[in-house]
Amino acid sequence: MPTPEELKTRIESALPGSTASVEDLTGGGDHFRAEVISDRFEGLSRIEQHQLVYGIFGDEVGGPIHALSIKTSTPGGTR
Amino acid sequence: MTNQEIRDFLQNAIDENHVMLFMKGTPDAPRCGFSMRTSAALNAMGVQYAAMDILPDPRIREELSALSGWPTIPQLFIDKKLIGGCDIVLEMYESGELAQALGVEQPEEEPRAPEASAPQSGPVGLENRLS
Asked: How much is the mean pLDDT over chain B?
């Protein structure tokens, strides 16, 4: 069962320089909320930003990770 | 029904409906909080939309995600283009971008996303518009 810490580590290593905070929404280890700040999001549409984060976990989203709620922003500000 | 037939059916739904929402349950009986909030945002916009319940057959979700490249439900399409899931739709609702994408006026009430736990200020028109 994935933990918020594990998700945080995986996001931050997949997107070097990013900062992620991840919480387990239900305590059940399958519904998560991730807030990610990364300069990699610069110039991407919101949907592309979210797909970048979803892409880190591949098939696990929809599998062991039932739900991953995402909020993305760049160090310069929200977009 | 083969997987290909399901995929063709989904593609057709996306092509034929200006606003197409794939969700768990229906707008009047949502089966997931994320689907509920997304359809509530559309209801607040007062637009006609088509909604399809993906739960009856697990292959619907598999084929939809393969088609869209988006792993989770709900998924909102406007003019055949994937807009996003619950997080994006609610962010766009609050910023006014959703009204813009739908070509309608932002509702006059405070543009705050409807929350599952928050009391509704009035009745929300929850009607399954899937014909």
From this structure: 86
- Contact B83/A47, CB-based, under 8 Å? yes
Q: With an 8 Å Cβ cutoff, are A47 and B69 in contact? A: no
Distance CA B39, CA A56 (A): 28
Range of the domain at B36: 3-102
CATH topology of domain A4-71: GMP Synthetase; Chain A, domain 3 (3.30.300)
Number of domains in chain B: 1
Q: What is the pLDDT of residue B45?
A: 94
Do A67 and B84 lie within an 8 Å CB cutoff? no
Length of chain A equals 79
Rg (CA), chain B: 14
* ipTM computed for the complex: 0.76
Chain B residue numbers with beta carbons less than 8 Å from the beta carbon of A62 are 61, 65, 71-72
- A73 to chain B nearest CA, in Å? 12
Residue contact B87–A71, C-beta within 8 A = yes
The encoded tokens of residue B70 equal: 């988006």
Is there a cis peptide before residue B71, judged by omega within 30 degrees of 0?
A: no
